[in-house]
Each structure stands twice: as C-alpha cells, then as structure tokens.
Design a protein that fits this description.
By secondary structure, the protein is of the alpha+beta class. It has 8 helices and 11 strands. It folds into 2 domains: 94 residues; 240 residues, Alpha-Beta Plaits. Helices cover 47% and strands 20% of the residues. The strands form 2 sheets. Strands 2-3-1-5-4-9-10-11 form an 8-stranded mixed beta sheet, sandwiched between helices. Strand 10 and strand 11 form a beta hairpin. Helix 1 crosses helix 2. The longest helix is centred in the first third of the chain and has 38 residues. The termini are close together. 27% of the residues are buried.
C-alpha cells in the first residue's frame, strides 16, 4: 500500500513538534499528555524514517548497478533487489500504524468471567475459561491479580474479576468479550448426554487517572465480611469493599484479605467500567467505528463454541474452526484463535485507510 508522501511528512513534523514541546513543558498534566503522544508516535516515526532511508539509498544503488565493473554491479543489483522486496512490507507496517486504531491497544485490562445459562456446569466452564486466560497471561509475561470472586457450589466460579497487567493486554484480549458456549458431557451426567451451557466474558481497558475523574461525593463506600466456601480462607473481619457510583448506579466489589488493597482494586475496577461506558457511547455514536463484526464489542453476542466431544473450537465471527481444543483450553494455543481475529481487524483498518486516501 503506497501512502502519500505528504502524510508521511505530516507524521514526522508532528513527532518533532512533540519532542520540542516536551523539552519546554513544565506543567505535569501537559508533560504526561505529550509523553503519551510521543510514545504512540515514536514507532510510526521510526518506521517512516526507515522507509525514507531505503528510498534515499535507491538512486545510489541504481547508479552502482550500471557500473562497468561486474562485481560492483552484481552486488548493487542484489542489494537493490533486497530493498525492493522489503519496501512493500515496510509500507504495510507503516500503514497499519497509521490506520485508525484503538487508543487503548497497549493498556492493561480488567477481565470479568461470569457463569451464564447451565447452572453448575456453567460455573465449571467459567472456571475453565478463567484458567485458560491465566495460563495465556503467564505465557505473555503478564501479571494476574484476582479482584473479586464468587465460587460455584460444585466448583468453578459464578463470577470472577481480575486485573491483568502488562503491555498490550487489552489489544490482545479485547476480542474475547462476548458469550462463550460449551458443549460437553458434565461430570455429574450419569447418562453421558452432551449438555450446552455458557459463560460471558468482558475485557475492559484499565483507565488511567488522566482518562477518568471521579468525585468523592459521587461514591458510597461500604465494607462487609466476604463469604466463601468455608475453611481458613474466609474473612473473619469486614475487609471486603463495595463501592457504588451514585450517578450511574455502577457497583464494584473486591473481597481479598486487605481492606486497603480492596479499596484500590475496587476503584481501579470502577474507573475501568466508567471508562468503558464512555467508549461504548462513542462507538454507538460513530457507526463507522463498527465496520466489522469482530470489533463490535457486543457482549450479548455468542462469539465462540467449545465442543469437547469433537475437540473443536469455533469462532463464529470469522468462521474459524480449529481442532486443537485441549491446547486452546490450556492457553497454549489461544493465539491460534486470537491472531486471526487481530488480522481480520487489521484488514478492516487498512481498508478504512485506503478509503481515506482514495
């Protein structure tokens, strides 16, 4: 994809302007904002500069390729061929960086998994899904902290909420939001019949302090004693925290052992939910931001089916079917599902960029 030179020059001009303003800025909020934009523009600017370097080398190599010395001309032709081969991929990389993208791509995330229809089996499946994401996060070098949990009577979770911290978590997991359906024979099924149950997954970008401002007067904070399945892990003190955001009615909880840590986690969860509400409102207002079903973010949509008898996992949004269910559930092969979804999204973003320049 050939990008207009004026657009490439615009990127470099803006990057240099940001660098100059960062050197002169004294206001803390302004420095944070400029630093964030600088971090976003730097890979684009470096990729543009790499293309410019290749284009600048071509005339010299073309002249050397016409040299009467066969050794020099052959070396020049080989190098020229290498540059010509690399240029389209370099331009595609820049196009992807310039294409409309989610500004929260690199953010950490809040992961929420809830049992849906299917009773105890749905709670067990929710537990399996959370374990899948835990193992996948570990393979990516991300940190997972459980914020709140409600266990199922037969195991698994009625609901579990966790913070996943790391670079690019939201961009990697955002397409996991939706209804996940499982077809398998429950351990409690004496007749060996296949049951269908479901769990819902929500992945919210973790909001930074500059994204969401919450007034203390808008909050009601309650402490209570968390409940559990019994044993030594049940809290004996009122350390669990429930925060209600009065203007929206959003309620968040955290029920670990430390009340101070619970307040921190609950506030982070609240910010993520309020920020997500803002994102959803903007997406609804911009219908063109929902060009592809992959990026719709509709959490009531059935996105994936896990069929255990056939060892099959199907993502319904891109008609992808794989027969490595066991490895997907271990988190080992989850990228086999995630990468095609990201590729589909990238294709849609490149198409939008082509429309912009056509």
């Amino acid at each position: 994809m050939r990008l207009p030179q004026a657009r490439l020059d615009q990127v470099l001009d803006r990057f240099r302007e940001i660098e100059a303003r960062m050197g002169a800025a004294t206001d803390g909020t302004e420095i944070v904002r400029l630093s964030k934009e600088h971090a976003e523009l730097k890979p684009v600017a470096e990729a543009v500069q790499a293309i410019q370097k290749v284009l600048a080398e071509k005339p010299e190599l073309e002249a050397m390729a016409a040299d009467p010395d066969p050794d020099i001309s052959e070396l020049a032709r080989d190098e020229l061929e290498r540059l010509e081969d690399s240029l389209p991929e370099m331009e595609r990389a820049v196009a992807l960086l310039l294409a409309p993208r989610d500004k929260d791509e690199n953010a950490s995330a809040i992961l929420e998994v809830r049992a849906g229809t299917g009773g105890d089996e749905a709670a067990l499946f929710a537990g399996d899904l959370f374990r899948m994401y835990q193992r996948y996060a570990a393979s990516q070098g991300w940190r997972v902290e459980v914020d709140s949990v409600s266990e199922g009577e037969m195991g698994g979770y009625k609901e579990i909420i966790a913070s996943i911290t790391g670079d690019g978590v939201f961009g990697r997991l955002k397409f996991e939001s939706g209804v996940h359906r499982v077809q398998r024979v429950p351990e409690t099924e004496a007749q060996g019949r296949i049951h269908t149950s479901a769990a819902t997954v929500a992945v919210l970008p973790e909001a930074e302090d500059v994204d969401i401002v919450i007034n203390d007067a808008d909050l009601r904070i309650d402490t209570y004693r968390s409940s559990g399945a019994g044993g030594q892990h049940v809290n004996k003190t009122d350390s669990a925290v429930r925060i209600t955001h009065l203007p929206t009615g959003v309620v968040v909880t955290s029920s670990e052992k430390s009340q101070h840590e619970n307040r921190r986690k609950a506030m982070a969860n609240l910010k993520a939910r309020l920020y997500d509400m803002q994102r959803q409102a903007l997406d609804d207002a911009r219908s063109d931001a929902r060009k592809s079903q992959v990026g719709s973010g509709d959490r009531s949509e059935r996105i994936r089916t896990y069929n255990f008898p056939q060892g099959r996992v199907t993502d319904h949004r891109i008609n992808l079917t794989l027969y490595n269910l066991a490895k997907v559930m271990e988190g080992e092969a989850l990228d086999d599902v995630i990468k095609p979804l990201i590729a589909e999204d990238q294709a849609a973003r490149l198409a939008a960029l082509e429309d912009e320049f056509s």
